[in-house]
Amino acid sequence: MNDRQKYLFDLQGYLLIEDVLSEEDCDLAIEKIKTRVQPMKKTPDGYESNGTWENAARLYEAGEPFIKLIDDPKITEVLTAIIAPALRCESSYSFVRHKGCPPFEMHGGNRGGGVNFRYDVHNGQIYTGLTVVSIALQEISEQDGGFACIPGSHKSDFAVPVEDRKELFALGGSLVRNIATPKGAAIVFTETLAHGAASWQNDEPRYGLFFKFNDRAAIYHAQEQRRPSAEALAQMTDAQKCYFNLAYQAFGPPENPRNDKPQFG
Ligand SMILES: O=C(O)CCC(=O)C(=O)O
Questions:
Q1: Residue 155 to residues 1, 173, 194: CA-CA distances in angstroms?
Q2: Is the per-residue pLDDT at 214 higher than 80?
Q3: How far, in Å, is the centroid of ligand 1 from the Cα of 15?
Q4: Could you give all domains of the chain from N- to C-terminal order, each with its CATH number?
Q5: In the sheet where 177-178 sits, what is the strand order?
């Protein structure tokens, strides 16, 4: 992670990394997502989706480019500098959102102190928890309604007051910015940041692709139902398989005391 990236991530709570995937990889990912989508009855906020939200899971089984995104060096050099030297990949999925879909309401927005939602800097070292890598598989403008956030909110020590939440966390409100993203870029953001997504406005659906990373010694999402299948693990290197190990840092079993050998697959 270079000094410019460190400055921008600390300032904003997110970082744009360009040219993570090629045009061809983006198009291939969209084709594979299209064959795997399932309709979602409700959005994560409980809105009726009315056919405007779909979800695609078990993407590793579809091979590349999903598998190489587990440990793409452009991403891991940032994540290992802000989370921990050894990482876990907690979940990965695509949300496909169609024009006029309900918003993904703003959430997060204060550092709170819990292991998954921390944000601190000591002696030039950033310490954050659960971190999202959102890959833009298509060109996204500010008007489209992609990723939105309140830059800098990851450093807030206070949660937004309940009575002010509607106004201050309003998508399209004065604090919230929509982030334009070039095709093939990644937005890396800490879950501690206040973030969400406005209603999608482009005729072409948004093929959002998300990976969530944590310290290999920490855990947020229940893992059993998210662990890659044997078919998916068979396509990974040993280093990639380690991203799906159980959460511990040391004193593991004799064959894997420091959690740096694959446990599954
Ligand atoms: O659609 C988006 O970019 C927002 C994603 C989001 O809010 C999340 O992953 O928690």
A1: 20, 20, 10
A2: yes
A3: 14
A4: 3-219 (2.60.120.620)
A5: 104-107, 195-197, 147-149, 177-178
On the question of pLDDT at 113 being above 80, the answer is: no
Among 195, 201, 209, 211, which residue has the most ligand 1 atoms within 8 Å of its CB, making it the best to mutate?
195
Q: Measured in angstroms, how far is the CA atom of residue 254 from the centroid of ligand 1?
A: 39
pLDDT tens track for 226-263 = 999 999 999 999 999 999 999 999 999 999 999 999 99
CA distance 43 to 210: 16
Residue with tokens 């971190």: 131
Q: Which two tokens stand for residue 144?
A: 């489209």
Three-state SS for 1? coil
Tell me the average pLDDT across 63-91.
98
Q: Find the angle CA(255)-CA(261)-CA(262) to the nearest 5 degrees.
A: 110
Residue 203 pLDDT class (50, 70, 90 cuts): very high
